[in-house]
Amino acid sequence: MKKKNKIIIGIVFAVLIILGVSIPSYNIYSKVKSFDGVIYPGISIQGIDVSGKNIDQAKKMVSDKYQAVVGDKKVNVQAQDKSYSIAYSKLNAQYDTDKVVKEAFNYGKNRSIYSKYKIIKNAAKKDFKLTFTYDKKPLDNFVGNIKKDVDREPVNATITKSGAGFSISDDSDGYKLKDQELKNKIIASIDGTLGADTNITADMETIKANKTKDKLQTINTLISSFSTEYGSRSSAGRVTNIKLATKAISGLVLMPGESFSFNGVVGERTAAKGYQAAPVDIGYSTGMGLGGGICQVSTTLHNAILQSGIKPTERLHHTIPSAYVPLGYDATVDYGNLDYKFKNTLNFPIYIEGISDNGVETFNIYANNSLTNRTYKIVNDVYETIQPKTTYINDPTLPAGTTRIDQNSLVGHKVKVFLQTYENGTMISQEMIANDAYNSVNQVIRRGTKK
């Protein structure tokens, strides 16, 4: 009997132990199971308590407070006297709501049942932060459109010869948007903060005109002049060409340090521009070419520029001497091949006036009157003369005793050209600026041998 009672008591104790373990475990399981489809207690997103909410509920709560409101915000930009705005919605500005809600929902879900129960029971506070994102392309377009609207090129002052003086217009500043700085400002201002719009002032760079009225007003006197005569040796086409090229150059202003290119200013000599066929030097002979005669324009300008104290940076002489200037004074040009160039090395701007009238080509150079204490003179030294030879060719097609000149002779020369500088009438320097060689051309005569 006693043994039977002991067995019964043992069974009772076993049942009680099993029940003591099973009932709490069941309660824990049930509690954890009830949070399978919702977010655990103590969890918040950007300060919003989403405990016990499912994914859709949590998304709506976060979106209503943040996403819907932030989309209405604007970035306002003031650029000079103009205003521009772009809404956050245009930037596709948004929070990563879906991602963060999912993270909040999954928090603790991969742990053991007892760890989950501990999280639920203790409801420890944990706040998930939203990340704010936007599309940079609409921002780039926004800033680019502002730049197109506000950028302005400076306007140079202009100067026109008017009688004995000059008429000078006003210059105006240009403006350039500091677009990268503006973009950086906008990027720094774009955030998810709720509240008022963002207001930004765009920084502008002021661009001064290269030719200002103040600078051009320093042009007040004639500092050099050079003329050549073309009336007695020019056809109507040659006269037309000279006048067209001169007109293209006249009125040009070169600031200190600026360069001049004859071909760059005059451009290609074409029939569409009015240029005509006229005699032109081709090697050691003369032929017809479109724009013939304008080497007299480049030559005349070259000498006027030299007498202002400015030396060429590119200049070539003809293969045969030019009839309108002394040896070594010429400057030949051929579009696409030969150019005449110089750079304004003076401390003041220069104004170039070209005049073609009554068969005379003239270039006048104007600058500041402080330069007139110095004058310049061009001198040449023909240090060698090369006499041509005569070559005879027997020609059986010509009657005996007769001759025919195939090529005329031309005397050759070697010449040095110097630029002399005078200060208050006294020569202070002499510089060789050219050492040219004009080759001789032998005479060729055919002698008849036919009997």
UniProtKB/TrEMBL annotation:
InterPro entries xrefs: G5_dom, Glycopeptide_resist_protein, Vancomycin_resist_VanW, YoaR-like_PG-bd
Tagged with keyword Flavoprotein: no
Transmembrane segments: 7-26
Classification via Pfam families: G5, PG_binding_4, VanW
Gene3D superfamilies associated with the record: Resuscitation-promoting factor rpfb (2.20.230.10)
Domain G5: 372-451
Keywords: Membrane, Signal, Transmembrane, Transmembrane helix
Organism per entry: Clostridium pasteurianum DSM 525 = ATCC 6013
Protein name, UniProt field: VanW family protein
UniProt entry tagged with the keyword Chaperone: no
